[in-house]
Structure formats: structure tokens, C-alpha cells
TrEMBL record:
Chain segments annotated as coiled-coil in the UniProt record: 197-231
Alphabetically ordered keywords of this record: Coiled coil
Classification of source organism: Bacteria, Pseudomonadati, Pseudomonadota, Betaproteobacteria, Burkholderiales
RecF/RecN/SMC N-terminal domain sequence ranges: 42-639
Protein name: Recombinase RecF
Record keyword Ribonucleoprotein present: no
Amino acid sequence: MDFLKLRAVNFLTLGDTGDMLLKDRGLIAIMGENKDDSSAKSNGSGKSSIADALCWALFGATARGESGDSIINRKAKKNTYAAVTVQDGESIYEIRRHRKDKQFKNGTTITVWNPADHYFNGGGGERIEKGTEKEIQAQINEIVGCTYEVFKAAIYAGQEDMPDLPKMTDKPLKMLIEKAAGIERLEKAYEIAGKKRDAAVAAVESSKKQIENAEAHIVNWKVSLQQAEQQHAQFEAGRPDVQKGWVERQEAIADAMRKNFTTYQNMKEPELIAERDLLQAQLADHNKLLQQRDALIRDENNARSELRVAQVELGKMRNKVVTLTDAIKNAPEAMSKPCGECGKPHTPDELDTFITHQKTKGAEVATEYQAKRSEVEALEAKVTAAGKAVSDYAATIPDVSAVSARVAELNSHISSAQHLKSVLQQQKTEHDRCATQAAAALTAVNPHQSAVDMGRQQIDALEKQVADIKAAQAPLLQAAEVAESVVKVFGPAGVRAQILDTVTPFLNDRTSDYLSALSDGNISAVWSTLASTTKGEAREKFHIDVENSEGADNFGGLSGGEKRKVRLATMLALQDLVASRAAKPISLWVGDEIDDALDNSGLERLMTVLEQKAREKGTVLIISHESLSDWCDQTATVTKSGGVSTVSGALCHA
């Protein structure tokens, strides 16, 4: 993992630094000049802002914990960003964090160029940041290969925030070493391996469950098959009895048929039908006579109807004659009264005229009455004659009641005979069916055969299914075993433990080298992952034992300068671990005013160590308020003027 360049705009005291090149730069001393404060030479110039910009761009906070709007340049008040470009293999990433930016607001962007030639040839990159800042930070940690804590402990020794590794307790020191060694990747691999192991075990358990279910079905089907086979055997054994039953039923029906047939023959149905037909012919002739009689009765009824009508009309005419006679008789009295319409009295002439008129009408009605009376008398004679004709004709019709009774009797006998004949036909049908069933009793398909066949087919299919599952289970079992082995490999007692076993000697070697250079070997700092309990038992415990052969026997007893040397040595050793790890090695180290509390001899030794480290690892940046030009060939200067700091010197050019 190489840091290519860094740029900060409106960040803390910095204005626009331009691109500051970081790859393979060797040892560079960063010094400052504060033109805004005559009481300070370099303090407050913004030297530390360069390292803080790098830390903030990657993790959203400086080494001293500054974040949010507090990192915005007080003069610019907006449009702040820090961008760092890194190269990981064939991929180049630009991580750019903004604050109060006009376009990106407070967002963070990640742009990738793959392959790297696209970047160096001026090609466009692809934005890959995810949705939330939390997700984006996880992406950045993955790209850089370390967390904020590891960065501060192994890469960036911040001003007033140098990690005090010798004083760290077990848990934070263990976490720091594991992250520095890249063991968190093993934890992720352990998690993935665990999921794969669980999936493999689940697949095995699923196959076992399938086998159990199939075998349970086999047991059930075998029980069903046994029952079906028993029923099948019982049916086969019962065929003769079934045939015998049908034969016996057929014979019983035949006996009944013979008896019924004899009875039927004795009924002599044809003779009964012939006699009935003859008598019915006689009744048909008698019906013709009755029809003629009925015609005469209808004539009599019609004559009577005409007579009634004529008699009614005659009565009406008689009433008219009476009315006219009364009117003539009462005319003088009626005409003596005034006219009912005009009130005038009637004259004698009017009386004569009225009487004459009434007599004329009376004569007309009397004539009509006599004619109607003659008609009534004629109709009365007609009715009498019609009634006599009916009586005379009825006397000639013979009595056939005995014939009708005989016909009814014959119909009853014929119906009984026909019913018996129907019974014979039904018996014939049943007789034939019994014969068919008796013949088929020994050859009919066994009704339980299908159940037997189905049971055998299901058992065969299930047994094949079990065999197939067991065959497929073998690779599943093997995969589960392999997955379990992988879990053990990536587990706490696996590769992780082996790496820690190699990490401790590495850290001790590097720490010893640095302390030898810084203190002539008088001070020792030993990293250890084990400690003894009060019972003398060894248990895992991360700690650093410090001793000065010429002084204190623990870290707390060292002088301030000696403590700083130990802190530097352990931190540099931890950075060597980060730089040398197989995954995401980081070849950059930044120290901010780490020369405090060191005398000239200590400072000279420190710069010698850092120069050697820069040659081996790539780039070492030393931020100091002291002039380090005597020990550093390359220097960069941060100058603050008018509330804004600018960068010049070695960082601004290759």
C-alpha cells in the first residue's frame, strides 16, 4: 500500500497545499514559520495540519480527535476538503473528504482507477463510495488496511497524542497488535469459514433428515404393503367359495324361475287377452248406441232451452198488454192533471188522441203475443216429442254391466300374468349375471393387486432415493469436514495464534534494534503475550516489560527522555510490523514533535534511526519546531501569514 499524494484545502490553518508527494520520499523534516505571531517562531504555523489532513481524509478525525466544523479554516469558513491518493497493486484510489463544500456538502467520495495506467495516463476514474458515511468508512478501512486506532499507533505519532504502548493494558494492546498484523482479516475469514461450515453442516443435516423421512416412509409403505398382500392372498384363497356362492345363487334362481314359469303358463294369458278383446269389441258396439242416445238427449236439451227462451219473451209481452190496458183505463184521471213539462192542463182532444194511440199499441202487442204463444205451444210439443224419443231409444239399449265386470276381472288376471312374466325376465337377467360371475370368479383381477403394485413401487423408489442421498452425502460429509478444518485454521488457536507467535519475536527484535540505537542498549522493552498467574500457570496476556540495566526496573521509573525513547522504539517497531505484513503493507511513518524531551545526543540517535527507516520503508515525515536541517537533506516549510498557511519545499516537488 503506497501513499502517492496528499492535498488539503481550507483545512485548519492550511489554505491550498497543492499536491504533496508522499511515495518513496525518504526522510523529510517539516518545519514551520508563524509570521502572524511574533511570540512564536514555528508554533501555530500549521505544521501538524499536514499530518492531521492525512488522518482526517482517511478517518474523519485528526490524531487529537478534532472533527466536524472545527477543522474548517477560520478565514475561508467553507469549501474544506482533504484528498489522499493511494495505490494498492493495480488499483489507485482517491479518498476525498469534504466539509461545507458547495458541491459535496459534508460527504466523502472514493474514486478508483483500475488498472493504474488509466490514472497515470489521465483517464477518468469510477466513483465507488456506498450510501452512508459508516459504509464509506468501512470501505476506506478496507482499502487502507488499517483502522483509526492502528493508524495513530503505528503510522502517525501525533503531537500530544503519541501512543503510550508500554503502559497499555492487555485488551487494547492485544487489539492493536492484531490489527497491525492484519489479523482482523483472519477474523473475517474465520467468520466466513464459520458460515460456510454451518452451511455445510446444514446440508449434511438436511440430507440426514431426508434419509430419515424416506426411511420412515419406507416403514409405513411396508406396513401398507403387508396389509395389501394379506388382503390379496385372502382374495385369492376365497375365489372357489365366491364361485360356489354364485353357482348356488344361480341354481336357486333357476328353481324359482321354473316354479314361476309353471304358474305363468297356468294363468293362460293369451286366452285371457283373447276373451277380453272380444268383450271389449262388444262394449265398443254398445258405446255406439250410447253415443246415439246422447245425441237424442242433446236434441231434447236444445228444445227445452228454446222453450225457456220463448216462455220468457211471452211473459214480457203479457206484461206489456197489462200495462197498456191499465193506461187506457186510467187515462181520464191522468189527463185531468196539468202537463208535467209546461204546466198547462190537457184538452179533451189530447185525451182522445192519447187513448187512440194506446189502443193501437195494445192491438200490435196482442198480435205479437198470440204469435209468440203459438211458438211456445209448438216448442212444448217438440220437447215432449224429444223426451219420448230418448225414452223409446233407451229402452232398446241392452244392459252390458256384466260384460264390463268381466272385462275388469280379465284385466286383473292379465296384469298379474304380465307382472309374473316381468319377474321371470328379471330372474333370467340375474341368472345370466350369476353365470357370468361364477365363470369370472377364478379369473377376475384381484382388486388388491394395484395396492400391492403401488406399495412395491413406492418402496423401490424410496430405497433408491435413500441410496442416491447417501451417495450424495459423501461429498457433503467431506465438505463439512473440510469446512470444520478451515474454521480451526482461521480460529483463535489456528493461523492467528501462529501469526501472534511470529509477531512477538519480530516486535522484540525491532524494538531492541531501535532501543540499541537510541540508548546504547541500556534500556530493554520486551513484548509478551503470556503472563503467569499466582498459581504459576501461563495465560494469554499482552504487555510490554521495560527495564533500564543502568536504572529503573520498570517503565514508570524511567526519566521523561527515556520514556520517549521507549515509546518511539515500540511505535517504530509496530510500524515495521504494519509495513512488513503480507496484506496491505504501509510504507509511511509520520512523527509530530517526537523529539521533545530528547537531548542533542538522543536527537542525533533518533534521526539516524529515522533516516535508516526511511531508506528501508519509503517515506518518513518528521514534524518539529526545532531546526532539523543538520540531520535531514530534505525539508518542507509551512508558513502562516494572514491566518492562512502555505507549504513549500520538498513535499511540493519530486
